[in-house]
């Protein structure tokens, strides 16, 4: 649907003019970060609605602007939601782009310059391709998915703004392309301090109206990142209950029907969740008795490391942790002043209890809870809520020694909380995530998940 919204908006406002063929399926797939199947599905919808001709005629635009009264309902996102996204993502995107630049060699930098000089249907396409290339250097599909998802979600409203003042936005994109070339030159000279500063300034200078506009608070239809996989969410909730002792080791979980009623998921979704837990070594099913909660020794032996769903979810976990490493400091420091005193005290107690029990990794979950509760940005709450759900899939790795040494970072977190020092809190959170990333990556490689080698920190 997001791909369809992108294409129909560009056709409606004349950026893909009547009589001109659309970009090829493969070009659209690369530009938008979606599969060719998704692109073909969107093109078929446009063909049925008589915006474009069929493939036998080269998928040429046949839409006549005078024949219709406006865009279909629901195409444009609300501007207040997009302002929230723009301001919230100032904490997420610049650190990711910066890391991408640092990973570029000379061949990559030449390629980036070529992207900006290549012909495009509009200047924005070259910019999207440039930024996608940077994120792709991190080897993290989760980050790339977020960038494309947020771009496609925002794009129709952005194009409507461009169409209202095409001259202004054409000049904006020309200036942005020049600045991106300057960034590539700074990366070539390894002047990374100047590069980071230019990235942060450029983000806000690009759209000063959205950057400075006050936010209105909650929204009826906020941004949602992707489609929730309900069986994963249900499994994550059960794991959290096991972790906090609600379902102790050696006891049986409630029946699938009871869990379904308690968690609010359908029975089939709950059963799929229980199947996932068996694959992760959290439980084992005993015929006629139910799902037994396992301890670490037996759980490790029962983890189905070769099962595709297990490998996929553990890889998503590592991708989420890498994203927390790159963005966690800026997000945590920004959110800290907004955290309520009661929430801070509760979090401090939880972290102290986790440290006393030897489970320092639980401090990450506590910090994520604080960030999600305290952030003034709906978009940050959505993204970090998604990352928190994915972080649960690292559970099987907790069975494998050695365990990461996190005490220094926990002390830094607690000191930041006690002294109301957001910088110390943010540094402690980043340090926790970085140490856990390195430990988890090595463990994944040790059990044969070779794909983890592609994910690295600088």
The gist of it:
This protein is mostly helical and 458 residues long.
Reconstruct the topology from this structure.
Layout: H1 2-12, H2 25-32, H3 36-48, H4 79-88, H5 93-102, H6 106-117, H7 123-136, H8 141-164, H9 166-188, H10 192-206, H11 208-212, H12 230-243, H13 256-263, H14 267-279, E1 283-286, E2 290-293, H15 296-302, H16 308-335, H17 341-356, H18 362-374, H19 378-391, H20 407-418, H21 422-446
Helix pairs in contact: 1-3, 1-8, 2-3, 5-7, 5-10, 5-16, 6-7, 6-9, 7-9, 8-9, 9-10, 12-14, 13-14, 16-19, 16-21, 17-18, 17-20, 18-19, 20-21
* Series of secondary-structure elements, N-terminal to C-terminal: HHHHHHHHHHHHHHEEHHHHHHH
Q: State the separation between the terminal residues, measured CA to CA.
A: 36 Å
- Assign a percent range to the helix content: 55-70%
Secondary structure category? mainly alpha
Radius of gyration: 24 Å
InterPro entries: Tscrpt_reg_HTH_GntR, WH-like_DNA-bd_sf, WH_DNA-bd_sf
GO molecular function: DNA binding; DNA-binding transcription factor activity
Protein name: HTH gntR-type domain-containing protein
Keywords: DNA-binding, Transcription, Transcription regulation
């Amino acid at each position: 649907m997001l791909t369809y919204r992108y294409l129909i908006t560009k056709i409606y406002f004349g950026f893909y003019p009547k009589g001109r063929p659309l970009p090829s399926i493969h070009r659209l797939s690369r530009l938008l970060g979606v599969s060719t199947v998704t692109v073909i599905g969107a093109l078929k919808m446009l063909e049925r609605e008589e915006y474009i001709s069929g493939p036998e005629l080269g998928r040429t635009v046949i839409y006549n602007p005078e024949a219709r009264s406006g865009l279909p309902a629901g195409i444009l996102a609300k501007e207040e939601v997009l302002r929230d996204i723009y301001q919230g993502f100032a904490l997420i995107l610049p650190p990711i782009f910066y890391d991408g630049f640092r990973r570029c060699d000379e061949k990559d930098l030449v390629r980036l310059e070529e992207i900006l000089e290549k012909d495009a249907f509009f200047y924005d396409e070259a910019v999207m391709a440039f930024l996608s290339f940077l994120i792709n250097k991190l080897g993290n599909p989760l980050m790339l998915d977020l960038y494309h998802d947020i771009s496609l979600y925002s794009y129709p409203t952005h194009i409507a703004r461009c169409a209202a003042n095409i001259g202004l936005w054409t000049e904006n994109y020309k200036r942005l392309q020049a600045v991106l070339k300057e960034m590539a030159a700074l990366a070539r000279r390894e002047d990374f301090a100047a590069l980071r500063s230019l990235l942060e300034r450029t983000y806000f200078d690009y759209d000063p109206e959205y950057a400075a506009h006050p936010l209105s608070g909650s929204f009826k239809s906020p941004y949602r990142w992707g489609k929730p996989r309900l069986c994963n969410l249900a499994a994550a909730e059960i794991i959290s209950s096991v972790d906090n002792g609600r379902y102790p080791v050696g006891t049986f979980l409630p029946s699938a029907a009871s869990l379904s009623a308690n968690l609010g998921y359908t029975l089939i979704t709950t059963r799929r969740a229980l199947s996932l837990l068996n694959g992760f070594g959290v439980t084992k099913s005993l015929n006629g008795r139910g799902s037994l909660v396992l301890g670490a020794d037996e759980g490790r032996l029962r983890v189905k490391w070769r099962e595709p769903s297990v490998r996929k979810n553990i890889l998503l976990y590592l991708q989420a942790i890498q994203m927390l490493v790159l963005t966690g400091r800026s997000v945590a420091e920004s959110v800290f002043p907004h955290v309520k005193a009661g929430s801070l005290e509760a979090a401090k107690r939880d972290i102290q209890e986790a440290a006393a029990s030897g489970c320092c990794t639980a401090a990450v979950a506590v910090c994520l809870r604080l960030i999600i509760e305290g952030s003034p940005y709906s978009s940050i709450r959505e993204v970090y809520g998604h990352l928190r759900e994915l972080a649960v899939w690292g559970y099987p790795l907790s069975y494998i020694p050695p365990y990461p040494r996190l005490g220094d970072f926990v002390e830094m977190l607690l000191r930041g909380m006690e002294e109301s020092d957001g910088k110390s809190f943010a540094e402690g959170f980043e340090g926790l995530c970085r140490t856990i990333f390195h430990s988890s990556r090595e463990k994944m490689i040790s059990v044969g998940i070779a794909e983890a080698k592609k994910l690295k920190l600088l």
